[in-house]
């Protein structure tokens, strides 16, 4: 009996002292303050479990970025030759050294991870809080969101063993805390004169020359993102089509795809303004292009409300939609750099496959996703990511002017991409010293393009009304380019894919918006000027010019 206890003690000591390589910790991520809108309640229970994801560094992201621009830049010999799923995965996969080192570290703690991404760059583990704190020199605690009362477990800092530092991009969810904001606001209850007070599909067709029908093929597809319990109602869509698109069957609807156990509950009380807006202005404007509402549930463990999970789900598909429309976002300061970069690179993967990704720029002018008190301008996320198309908003019809709420500015996380260097330099020269010191003059500038975003008619919970926001302009542009994709595919041509290099190489084909500003942070914000500006980008679409620029007769 004594000898058995001694043997057990020796064995336990061996476990504790195993792998000295992994006892030398290096700080990996840290945030200095409790996230805005959250309260720190104290340490999480030691025996409570948490699922963590470990992102391994990819072997050749620079190569993937080059390949993306090769297939997306009109002057390139490879333009339009989008990559296959397997070709993208080859760039993204971690090296065998990275995989082996991380697996050895986890094994030293008695853990076998689960691979949760096609390329093998994401691993998942489930451990108790005590083990998580030990493994990553962390202090996982409970945080409560003041607006909702919902609690979540995060840490304000964590470290990794020095041997893992070259191989681990991040551990997640750790320092990322926050919820996405839908970029939409409710308002009270030849271009038709009525378009001056209410925007409908007929107004958009007249303003931008959007066709009413699609060629008789269904290869063009739109994905619509749904988050935070926003449900799209088929009854409201039917009312919308019956009222505003009498030329297409009122039975036209959308498919539903679930991520993270997402649902799409029906019934007037379950109607979501954002979800209804997005599905009505894709199904209703891109009549004939199949629409899928991708509903992301609350059971996500990616630490960023399913933003990463939805992209990983699409990356895993053999044929993802050629257009993805998302009308939600964060304030960039609330998104840690590591997860922001990882998510941006996931958009790069999808773009290389031929998907055009649209994100609303936000509704707070220069103060962020929503209006708020600030001293320096607040960029939004993911609009600052260079591998997607950020969408601003306009208002009025004769002529169009920039919407005051349209968020825009310059990222503090991402550098300015080469495709917009000339356009942004011209704006900064025009701006001069205005707002000096309030924004990052070298950051990725956004938005890229714009469309109508005020007094947009929808049905919600059985009632007709109007809404404002860059949430409106985003599905409108998604529909516009989905219809263009349909025509390109019918002509045997490649789809648009990652759009931004085309936009900045063809600024003259868009309607330039030169009036208005986007106030915030006790300033008038930025002015709309000739050429690109941080309210409406290069302007609004002209479908006939897009057709010509993409080689359609």
Automatic annotation (TrEMBL):
Major place of residence: secreted
Superkingdom of origin organism: Eukaryota
One annotated Gene Ontology cellular component of this protein: extracellular region
EC number, UniProt record: 3.4.14.10
Signal peptide limits: 1-18
Domain Peptidase S53: 198-553
Cofactor remark: Binds 1 Ca(2+) ion per subunit.
Positions of Ca(2+) binding: 512-513, 531, 533
Active-site residue list: 274, 278, 471
InterPro entries listed in its UniProt record: Peptidase_S8/S53_dom, Peptidase_S8/S53_dom_sf, S53_propep, Sedolisin_dom, Tripeptidyl-peptidase_I
Oxidoreductase among keywords: no
Keywords from the named record: Calcium, Hydrolase, Metal-binding, Protease, Serine protease, Signal, Zymogen
Reactions performed catalytically: Release of an N-terminal tripeptide from a polypeptide
Cofactor(s) the protein needs: Ca(2+)
Gene Ontology MF, one: serine-type endopeptidase activity
Subcellular location: Secreted, Extracellular space
GO terms, biological process: proteolysis
Enzyme class: hydrolase
Function of the protein: Secreted tripeptidyl-peptidase which degrades proteins at acidic pHs and is involved in virulence.
Name of the protein described by the UniProt record: tripeptidyl-peptidase II
Organism name: Sphaerobolus stellatus (strain SS14)
